[in-house]
Each structure stands twice: as C-alpha cells, then as structure tokens.
C-alpha cells in the first residue's frame, strides 16, 4: 500500500530501513521489504539510496553520530564522567533500540564497505572517548577506554539477544 506523500521521504526510508534491518538483519532484508515498511514503491527507495548497502551504511553512520553527540552532551565532573556516559548510553539505547540492533548486525556483515563503516564509527567513538577521558584526568586511560567500549558492545549484545544477565548477572 502506498502512503500519501509527506515529510522527508529520505528520512522515512532510512527509518524504515532501521526497522527492517533491526528485525531481519542485513542479509535477510531486501529493498522491497524496506519499501513496504515505508509505504512506497521499491524503485522509489533507489531515488535516495543506490543500493541496500548504501542505505545500511547511512543508518550505521546515523547511529554512530548519535552516540558521539550523546557523549558530547554529557556534562559531568571528572569523577562521575564514566558513570554519566554509561547512563547516557543506556538512555540512548532505550530511545533508539533499532540503532543498537543495527550495530550488532553490522559487526557480522562481511561486505568491505560495511566493515569500513563499522571501523570508522567505532574508531570515532574510541577517539572521542579517549580524549574526553584524558582531559578528565582518568588514570590508566587506555585500559578505561577499552573497558568502557567493551561494556558498551556487551550491552548491545545483551539487548539484542534479550539476555540482560550478560550485564547485570540476574537471570530473567
């Protein structure tokens, strides 16, 4: 069913892509499914994204940029910085669960362009976090950043699998 024209179609397609990719993964998603979710024809998807891969990368870029912006918006004393950034990420995960699922999916995709987008996104988060932790005077900064990022990835996997005991140790 075709929806009437409204709003920003590229955004609608991107949101539909996030929804479908998060439920079906990269390899089981087609542009036809994304078009159906967006309420448009499949050829219309290609007016904005040349390929499914390009759409997936755009969605990944959005997810990583949102994480970075969230971390940049954290205001905290140096002593509370790590805890406040974890709290901000947890809130972000609740608000944008499809983006969390997309990151987990992105790790498993073997296409070079998607792997490069994952590397770029994770590297930008690592670089920002490292500089932020250094400027806060956090001791053993390399180890703390690695632990922080590892915990974030574990949170993503825990959320994606609906297995909270990976993080909080409590069985459902």
UniProtKB/TrEMBL annotation:
Domain of life: Bacteria
Keywords noted in UniProt: DNA-binding
DNA-binding span(s): 30-49
Gene3D superfamilies xrefs: Tetracycline Repressor, domain 2
Residues covered by the HTH tetR-type domain: 7-67
Alphabetized GO MF terms: DNA binding
InterPro entries, alphabetized: DNA-bd_HTH_TetR-type_CS, Homeodomain-like_sf, HTH-type_Tx_Regulator, HTH_TetR
Protein name: TetR family transcriptional regulator
Source organism: Scopulibacillus darangshiensis
